[in-house]
Design brief:
The protein has about 425 residues and is of the alpha/beta class. About 45% of the residues lie in helices and about 15% in strands. The N and C termini lie far apart (about 85 Å).
Length: about 425
């Protein structure tokens, strides 16, 4: 009997030990590292609340948050990848996301999240950082442009201030009318401000479907460039448009009442209210004019998963949590940014109008989110090639070359670079 008792006690003890060990294994902490970009100290409390919220609902996960200055993040990430000690979830802009994805340094989200989650993001934003159908980021927040316009100048020109232009051709016509009737410039789009596809190509593709040949020297593109070059030569566009600092000059012109329309970010409403209160009172807001593609570029901030993470599923789940509708809405209420989740727009914050310009700006920008994307071009040395294209456009504006000749020369340079990219 005594032997049986000892045996039963031993067995019971073993069972308890196994249960304890299994429980410990099940409760083992998974640690992931989350990098943001230049969000401290202004948003420390907000990001900390997100991390705490996730850990509260996922007690077996520990999130280590590090904020990296934007000007060293690329180098630091490259160093982490080289060392094999990678962060799990990283905040990058769309340019950097595409760059690291092409290097093979990121994991796609396709198989890491349910379709119900993925489908809640704006498709155009997901597509912005997708390559061959693989989604290499979850868009976190975006800053779409809007069109500020001076109602008084529209009225002075005999235009209906309640009918601002909705397409680029309408914007061109209105600009001509405004300049002829008021002596004031209609618009000053910063078409050569950065190494991105020029604004006046209306989002049309610059490459053939197979990506091996430049097509921006075809008749449709030549016609567009010819229109803008003619506007410039006839004095309907400020000379500064092809000089450096065009965006700063455009804001100065608008703030002094010498520009009828300004395409810029929603936060400009606060700037013009402080610097030019009289112009602020005359200002209204409309969507950015669209071309045939019905999309326009905007600065998108992403969350990515770095290849080499030991916990891809947890990393993806955390990235989706950071970018869920509730957290996006909370972030958007702290700063002038906009959500990447369609469900976030159900919040009255993006639809309820209180009669003020800032609220109308917010509602207008929110309605544009379906059109926001980031144009992808898998080309060698993109900054150099876009500079070549911008130089060609400048040559056409200045009359140094015809639009056809300018675009032919740029297309030749692109084709040569693309042929060496096979």
């Amino acid at each position: 009997m005594r032997k049986n008792s000892f045996r039963k006690i031993a067995i019971a003890g073993t069972i308890i030990l196994i249960v304890v060990l299994l429980s410990s294994a099940l409760m083992a902490t998974t640690t992931i590292t989350f990098w943001t970009m230049s969000l401290k100290p202004k948003f420390t409390n907000f990001i900390t609340s997100i991390v705490n919220g996730y850990e509260k609902t996922h007690p077996n996960v520990k999130v280590i948050w590090e904020d990296i200055p934007w000007n060293v993040e690329q180098q630091k990430l490259l160093g982490a990848i080289a060392s094999g000690q990678v962060p799990d979830v990283v905040n990058l802009n769309a340019d950097w996301t595409l760059d690291f994805a092409r290097r093979g340094a990121l994991l796609p989200f396709n198989d890491l999240l349910p379709s119900s989650v993925i489908n809640d993001y704006f498709a155009s934003m997901l597509k912005a950082t997708s390559i061959n159908g693989k989604m290499y980021s979850l868009p976190w927040y975006v800053a779409p442009d809007v069109t500020f316009y001076n109602r008084k100048l529209f009225e002075k020109a005999g235009l209906d201030p309640n009918q601002p232009p909705r397409t680029w051709d309408e914007a061109i016509i209105d600009s001509i009318i405004i300049k002829d009737r008021t002596g004031t410039y209609g618009m000053m789009p910063t078409i050569l401000q950065s190494s991105t596809p020029p604004l006046f190509f209306y989002g049309l593709p610059l490459l053939s479907p197979d990506g091996k040949k430049a097509i921006f020297n075809e008749p449709e593109y030549v016609h567009i460039l010819a229109k803008w070059a003619t506007l410039y030569k006839l004095g309907y566009l400020p000379k500064n448009i092809i000089e450096g600092g065009a965006w700063t000059k455009s804001t100065e012109l608008y703030g002094s009442g010498q520009l009828a329309m300004l395409i810029t970010g929603p936060q400009f409403a606060d700037r013009v209210k402080v610097n030019s209160p009289d112009i602020y009172e005359e200002s209204d807001v409309a969507p950015v004019p669209l071309g045939e593609s019905k999309i326009f570029g905007a600065a998108i901030q992403d969350l990515v998963i770095v290849k080499g993470t030991k916990h891809p599923k947890v990393a993806a789940d955390f990235a989706a949590y950071v970018t869920n509708a509730e957290n996006e809405i909370a972030f958007d209420k702290l700063v002038t940014i906009f959500p990447t989740r369609k469900s976030a727009l159900k919040d009255p914050f993006f639809s309820k109008y209180d009669g003020t310009l800032p609220t109308k700006v917010r509602i207008t920008a929110a309605k544009e989110l379906n059109h926001v994307s980031y144009v992808i071009y898998n080309i060698p040395n993109p900054h150099e090639l876009f500079q070549t294209l911008n130089d060609a456009i400048s040559a056409a504006f200045l009359g140094v070359k015809t639009p056809q000749q300018a675009l032919n020369d740029a297309a030749k340079a692109w084709d040569e670079a693309l042929s060496g990219n096979d």
